[in-house]
Design brief:
Order of helices and strands: HHHHHHHHHHHH
Shape: globular
Structural class: mainly alpha
Radius of gyration: 20 Å
Distance between the termini: 55 Å
Length: 258
């Protein structure tokens, strides 16, 4: 017996099809390009805070030095994925995910100027939100947690990130955002909170565990490590903490943002 369009639709998966995902990406991009700057900025501050919360959770796992390397990387990565999961569920504005606005631009839904303006506003908001979380965690003395092992992890992670060559950071940033945009893309297909969680989990776990570089995460992790160092934390790790300074933080963010 032949099936009509209604019967076929009834058999489909609950998730959006790939063509529908692309159409949704264009619509969302158009909405972002037309958003009021104040609203976009506040939502971007929230995204900076949320991604930072993922970084905060990751540092807790990284502070446990008894874990084997792969276990430490994997557990920290799973903890970090909380950040993007919260972003896609709350509608916060994240610069790296918003790079998918290029879909709508290529379909001539909006101009280069409106897209770039949106990116600048969101990038600035992400940075402010990240720095706000750094201030909150400094006030909460989070570095002292786990017998000050968290403070050691803060400085070790930040020093390791700023000690890499510019070119290496550039390619790690590309690999990271390829996985981040895949996570956001698949989350567009999701209809439930559970779907969004699993859409985000594996790509984000992969990029963090593999040591790739995310500019918004680094807006939190690098100032967090630098602030901990400058406040006189008694660091007992083996990282080159002399490499961790404002200049190296700016260089890292420039490379990873590109």
């Amino acid at each position: 017996m032949a099936m009509d369009a209604k019967d076929i639709a009834a058999l489909r998966s609950d998730a959006l099809a790939p063509a529908e995902i692309e159409a949704k990406a264009e619509i969302l991009g158009l909405n972002k390009s037309q958003a009021k700057p104040g609203k976009a900025f506040v939502l971007a501050i929230m995204a900076g805070l949320l991604i930072g919360l993922g970084g905060m959770f990751m540092l807790l796992f990284k502070s446990e030095i008894s874990f084997p390397f792969v276990a430490s990387q994997a557990l920290g990565a799973i903890g970090f994925s909380m950040g993007l999961f919260l972003v896609v569920c709350t509608g916060a504005e994240l610069f790296t995910g918003n790079c998918l606005m290029i879909c709508g631009k290529l379909s001539e839904q909006y101009s280069w100027a409106s897209m770039l303006k949106s990116w600048v506003i969101v990038y600035a908001g992400n940075l402010l939100g990240s720095l706000l979380l750094v201030a909150l965690l400094v006030g909460a003395n989070y570095a002292a947690f786990n017998s000050e092992a968290v403070g050691n992890a803060m400085i070790t992670v930040a020093a390791g990130k700023v000690s890499q060559p510019f070119g290496v950071l550039l390619f790690k940033g590309i690999l990271c955002n390829f996985l981040v945009c895949l996570a956001v893309w698949v989350s567009f297909a999701a209809r439930t909170i559970t779907d969004k969680f699993f859409a985000v989990l594996m790509p984000i776990t992969a990029f963090v565990a593999c040591g790739f570089e995310h500019c918004v995460a680094n807006m939190f992790l690098l100032p967090m490590g630098l602030a901990t160092k400058l406040l006189g934390f008694a660091y007992s790790g083996s990282a080159n903490i002399e490499a961790l300074n404002i200049g190296s933080v700016a260089t890292n963010l420039a490379a990873v943002t590109i």
